[in-house]
Automatic annotation (TrEMBL):
TM helices/strands, residue ranges: none
Keyword Nucleus: no
UniProt source species: Saccharicrinis carchari
GO biological process: double-strand break repair via homologous recombination; nucleotide-excision repair involved in interstrand cross-link repair
Record's keyword terms, sorted: DNA damage, DNA repair, DNA-binding, Endonuclease, Hydrolase, Nuclease
PANTHER family listed in its UniProt record: DNA REPAIR ENDONUCLEASE XPF (PTHR10150)
UniProt cross-references to InterPro entries, sorted A to Z: DisA/LigA_HHH, ERCC4_domain, Restrct_endonuc-II-like, RuvA_2-like
Protein name: ERCC4-type nuclease
Any Pfam family: HHH_2
Single GO MF annotation: damaged DNA binding
CDD domains, sorted: H3TH_FEN1-XPG-like, XPF_nuclease_XPF_arch
Domain ERCC4: 14-94
Amino acid sequence: MLYLSVGKQVNIPTIVVDYREERSGIPDLLCQLGCDVQLTSLKAGDYIVNDSIIVERKSKDDFVLSLMQGRLFKQCVLLQKSGYVTSLLIEGNPYHTVHNVSREAIRGALLSVSLSWQIPINYSANNSDTANMIMRIAEQNPKDTFMVQRYGYKPKTLQKQQLYFLQGLPLIGPKLANALMKHFKGIDRIMSASEVELAQVSGIGKNKAMRIWQFIRSGE
């Protein structure tokens, strides 16, 4: 399905959009801003801007939910493998959501995305602001964007990325991170585990389990 803005100009931005974004109303808003918008099924991201920049859009609630379900890190891997310049765009304040997840856990996830995966994070207030942000992204020079250098340690595989994230939990080093993954078989199960379930992991015990559970669940 192709959206064409009225009065098409030679250099208007071209935005390829995942069809699931249609319900957000953002494709229509982009058309109103003068973009050519094409709906399709994307394997990674939600928007591909001028065939050079890929944007993953998340509402504040979906960002936290994707963290809890373990989707966030898989999506980061797909973004990096896409071959495009990457960007994560969060609508709203991820620290104020309907989910009972601590500020520390959310902050850790944001730091992992920006530092471990080297994916820049931008914020918008609402759908209209998101459309304007994507329009501004489209106006950037892709050649200049590709000149950004990436520094620091960055785990290469999904397994190492998951272990790297788990080591951000209280009292968790490489050995216990491996023990958690071996026991629960996934980040989503770790994030939703009870204090009793965490204590059953070899090397964790009741005290560490309490600290980890409070870290994940406390809204303070």
